[in-house]
Write a structure and sequence with these properties.
The complex is a heterodimer of chains A (102) and B (503).
Chain A (H helix, E strand, L loop, with lengths): L1 H11 L3 H16 L1 H5 L8 H12 L4 H19 L2 H6 L9 H4 L1
Chain B lengths: L5 E9 L3 H10 L1 H4 L4 E4 L14 H8 L6 E2 L6 E2 L21 H7 L6 H14 L12 H12 L5 E2 L29 H7 L3 E3 L2 E6 L4 E6 L16 E12 L2 H11 L13 E2 L2 E7 L14 E5 H4 L1 E5 L4 H7 L4 H9 L4 E8 L8 E4 L5 E4 L4 H20 L4 E3 L7 E3 L6 H4 L13 E2 L2 E2 L17 E2 L2 E6 L14 H23 L1
Parallel strand pairs in B: 1-2, 1-9, 2-6, 4-19, 9-22
Antiparallel strand pairs in B: 3-4, 5-12, 7-8, 8-9, 10-20, 11-14, 11-17, 12-13, 13-14, 15-16, 17-18, 21-22
Classes of the chains: A mainly alpha (102), B alpha+beta (503).
Chain lengths: 102, 503
């Protein structure tokens, strides 16, 4: 899949410390909902998943907010950096500029 | 172990952006007098056809860490390019001269505004700086002008340094039509024609007290963009009579910090930047936004409210990153792309104790940066002003990261001040990026400065600095013209000192 390839490529050039932190964060996201909902993240219904992610985004802990921001950035990169996704939202910039629109 | 090959030059310039490119051109006449001048650039030299305008491909090729260089706190990304031409490849070409009040505030002995202005005007002319005609202004910019005036702001047009602009809107990914007159198009080619050597993919690792540079030339990776280096890959020792550091704020400061030199103690202090937020608003009908020059107008409230607003147009991933949240609300804004108007809010951030550049154990740059209350205030005020401009231009809703929820509907336009507040600012939640990096090797006279007003490092007359790291505080506007003007001063002092330093 193109999305995974983009994310993998972006991670390859990042320091290994950052890669390890990301793995820890993903594991935490998978297991932390057990404490609140009694289920792992991937077993949660969509609404609860969103609520859990919102809690991370608004967390009083900078470390969690930062981690979530990084993960979200990677996901958005994987999705919107694909030319097909860019075109699907109506983005049509062209090196030929005005000439391509006339 | 085989010793690294040694090469000898009279002048070695580290970096080829607005500072390094200017110094290279200004020192080119020395070559006629038999001097050898070399420029080392860490990034590659790209072929014209390699500028495709594809977001991820170009960002990865041009920017350090693909544009995602993080501060140590992990709460802001810093964007700077590593290529032949440095960050002049990725700016939008907006060409402003330093405000008189800022230069007065800097208080650098011997540096007066009139001198900077005279030098700036030389480069404005050389780089073909002019105002775009009305027929080349797109809706995204026109709406800012109209909305700004209706909302009571003084909207000014950016002079830009383009020649043959086709309106690709892709300036920040490197112009695919080579229209921007950066140092890669103007100063460096002129310098090379006069005999200055430019070595790309060449990272200067260290400067030793005997004026020797340790230089590592990298091999071009398979499938990578850009030409191979002019030198064979490997490590070199380069002896130089005069060394000019112009590798940008991060590059120059970290190079000085990892070099075993008796340097001033305050190297790295005084780092500042323009933390920036991308704001978007949705209109009822499609507008021309991803075609045409992206940055034609601005509102300067730096002196009064610590913010500057600029028109802008970013690419899908960059835009997605700038929006808060995720899920349906987020993708709803993204799907409105052809109807989006964008404004960039830049906070005018004063140099603050503690915000500084250091290096880690391996000599890599580490930028320590915390947002002050004043800077957050500038971002909040700038966001409020942008929302007023968006609504005055007819937007249906505005996305403001400092509001909860972030989408503000037009029927709440009167409540902008109440809805957008610093209370909603949370570090690590809002995507903040800075492209105008300043300070780290401040000019001045006292113990809090690294160089004098001519870029001479205190105590090391053969070592000069010629880039934005010289700024003793924020410039509060787009900096490239001022960098060129300062670099021109630095080059003048080098020409004057050359007989004594080089023999």
């Amino acid at each position: 899949m193109e999305l995974e390839r983009i994310v993998e490529q972006a991670l390859t050039s990042r320091p290994s410390r950052l890669q390890r932190q990301l793995v820890i964060l993903i594991r935490a996201i998978e297991w932390l909902p057990l404490l609140r909902y009694g289920r792992r993240f991937t077993r949660l219904e969509r609404r609860r998943r969103a609520r859990f992610l919102e809690a991370l985004q608004e967390s009083p802990l900078l470390l969690l907010r930062r981690g979530f921001w990084g993960l979200r950035t990677l996901a958005l990169m994987g999705y919107y950096a694909r030319p097909a996704a860019a075109a699907s939202v109506g983005y049509h910039a062209d090196p030929r500029g005005w000439e391509a629109r006339r | 172990m085989i010793p690294a090959p040694e090469r000898v030059y009279d002048v070695a310039i580290v970096g080829s952006g607005a500072g390094g490119g200017t110094v290279a051109q200004a020192l080119a006449p020395l070559v006629r007098d038999g001097r050898r001048v070399v420029v080392f650039e860490q990034g590659p030299r790209f072929e014209d056809a390699e500028f495709t305008g594809r977001e991820l491909e170009m960002a990865s090729a041009l920017y350090a860490d693909g544009g995602g260089f993080l501060t140590a706190q992990g709460t802001m990304t810093l964007a700077f390019a590593q290529a032949y031409g440095g960050s002049t490849l990725v700016y939008t070409g907006t060409s402003l001269t330093a405000p008189e009040r800022v230069i007065r505030h800097w208080g650098v002995p011997g540096l007066d505004h009139a001198d900077l202005l005279r030098r700036s005007q030389h480069y404005l002319a050389e780089n073909n700086v002019h105002l775009l005609p009305p027929e080349e202004i797109n809706d995204n910019n026109r709406l800012f002008l109209e909305g700004g005036r209706r909302a009571g702001y003084r909207v000014e047009q950016f002079p830009v340094n383009v020649k043959g602009c086709r309106g690709s809107s892709l300036c920040n990914l490197g112009c695919p039509n080579q229209a921007k007159q950066g140092t890669n198009r103007v100063q460096l080619p002129q310098a090379e024609r006069q005999g200055v050597e430019v070595v790309t993919r060449a990272e200067v690792l260290r400067i030793d007290p005997d004026r020797t540079l340790a230089v590592r030339v990298s091999e071009k990776a398979a499938g990578a963009k850009g030409r191979p280096s002019e030198w064979a890959p490997g490590e070199y020792r380069v002896r130089a009579g005069i060394v000019v550091c112009a590798g940008g704020v991060i590059g120059t400061t970290s190079l000085l910090l990892r070099s075993p030199l008796p340097r001033p103690r305050c190297v790295g202090e005084g780092f500042t930047c323009h933390p920036a937020l991308i704001l978007v608003a949705e209109h009822a009908r499609p507008i021309t936004n991803d075609v045409g020059h992206p940055k034609s107008y601005f509102v300067d409230r730096g002196a009064e409210q610590r913010f500057v607003l600029e028109t802008c147009m970013y690419f899908p991933f960059t835009t997605a990153k700038a929006l808060s949240g995720f899920g349906a609300a987020h993708s709803g804004v993204m799907r409105a792309f052809p109807r989006l108007q964008m404004i960039l809010v830049l906070a005018c951030d004063a140099a603050t104790p503690g915000n500084r550049i250091t290096v880690d154990g391996a000599g890599r740059p580490v930028v320590r940066y915390r947002f002050t209350e004043e800077t957050v205030g500038g971002l909040v005020e700038g966001t409020r002003a942008s929302a007023r401009i968006f609504f005055a231009a007819g937007a249906l809703r505005v996305h403001a990261p400092f509001a909860t929820p972030p989408l503000i509907e037009a029927n709440d336009a009167e409540r902008v001040t109440e809805l957008i507040t610093a209370r909603h600012f949370k570090e690590g939640k809002v995507a903040i990026s800075a492209a105008h990096l300043m300070g780290g090797c401040a000019m001045g006279a006292g113990a809090e400065s690294v160089t004098d007003g001519w870029g001479r490092v205190h105590g090391l007359p053969w070592l000069r600095v010629a880039d934005a790291s010289l700024f003793p505080d924020s410039l509060e506007i787009n900096p490239y013209v001022t960098i060129m003007a300062l670099a021109d001063r630095v080059a003048e002092a080098i020409r004057a000192d050359a007989p004594a330093l080089l023999g």
